[in-house]
Design a protein that fits this description.
It contains 9 helices and 10 strands. It is an alpha/beta fold. The strands form 3 sheets. Strands 2-1-3-4-9-10 form a 6-stranded parallel β-sheet, with helices on both faces. It has a two-stranded antiparallel sheet with strand order 5-8. Helix 2 crosses helix 3. It is globular. It starts with a strand and ends with a helix.
C-alpha cells in the first residue's frame, strides 16, 4: 500500500528520512510529501494548496492509500479524507487530532512578517521533547521552516460526511491511548466521535517519534496499512 507521510509544523518531507526505509523493508511504498510552503521559498502558500497537493498524491497512489498526518498535519490528513473518502484506506494521526470544520488550522502562534517561525524548544519542554537529545533538537531547529500565515491562519472547511466512515488510527506519543479515549468520551474530539472505526496505538516517545522511534513508528504504520 502507498503510505503518504505529512509532517507537522516547521518540517518537510525530510522529517521522515529514518522512517521511509523501515516502511520499505516492511513491504509498503512510503511517500514523504513536500508541500507548498515547505522549504520552497513560497511564503504565500495557502492551506488550500497544501490540501490539493495531498489530494493529488492520493489520486496518484496505486489504490487506496494510508494517509499519515503528524501533529498539526493531522488536520491536513483529515481534510484529505474529506476530499477523497473513497480513496483513503485509513488515516493515521500521529500526535494530533482533527478539529471541526470552521476552525483555524493552527492558531497557537501568531505570524511574524507573514510567517510563523519555529519558536524554539521552550514551549515544548516536558513530555513533548524529553526523549530528544540535544543533538537531535539542534538538528531539527536548524532545519525548521517558517510556515506561511496563509496556511496557519486559514479556516479548515470539512464538507463530506463520508469521511466519518474512513478508518482512523490514533498513534499516541506523549499521551496515552487511555487519555485519548477519555478526550473522545468527553467530547473534546468531536470529529472522531462521529467516526465509525477508531483505534489507538501507543508509542513510547515524545511528540516527534519520527526522530526518536523511527523503527517502531514504521512498524505501527505498516500495521495500519494492513488493517
Amino acid at each position: 500500500m502507498d503510505i503518504l507521510l505529512i509532517a507537522g509544523m516547521w518540517l518537510d518531507g525530510s522529517a521522515w528520512d529514518e522512517v521511509v526505509p523501515e516502511i520499505e523493508k516492511l513491504g509498503h511504498r512510503p511517500v514523504a510529501l513536500n508541500l507548498p510552503g515547505q522549504g520552497d521559498g513560497n511564503t504565500a502558500a495557502t492551506l488550500d494548496e497544501q490540501v490539493a497537493a495531498v489530494v493529488a498524491a492520493v489520486d496518484a497512489a496505486d489504490g487506496p492509500a494510508l494517509v499519515v498526518g503528524h501533529s498539526a498535519a493531522c488536520q491536513l490528513a483529515w481534510l484529505t479524507a474529506d476530499r477523497r473518502p473513497e480513496a483513503v484506506a485509513r488515516v493515521a494521526l500521529v500526535g494530533g487530532m482533527p478539529s471541526p470544520s470552521g476552525e483555524k488550522y493552527f492558531g497557537f502562534f501568531e505570524p511574524v512578517d507573514g510567517v510563523v517561525p519555529f519558536p524554539g524548544w521552550e514551549p515544548f519542554e516536558g513530555p513533548d521533547s524529553d526523549d530528544m537529545s540535544d543533538a537531535v533538537k539542534e538538528s531539527v531547529a536548524a532545519g525548521a521552516i517558517a510556515v506561511p500565515a496563509g496556511i496557519t491562519q486559514a479556516v479548515a472547511e470539512l464538507t463530506d460526511e463520508r469521511r466519518y466512515a474512513v478508518p482512523v488510527t490514533m498513534v499516541c506519543p506523549e499521551y496515552t491511548p487511555e487519555q485519548a479515549k477519555e478526550w473522545l468520551a468527553a467530547g473534546d474530539i468531536p470529529e472522531l466521535a462521529k467516526c465509525t472505526d477508531v483505534d489507538y496505538v501507543d508509542i513510547d516517545s515524545g511528540h516527534w517519534p519520527m526522530f526518536t522511534q523511527p523503527v517502531e513508528l514504521a512498524r505501527i504504520l505498516a500495521d495500519c496499512a494492513k488493517a
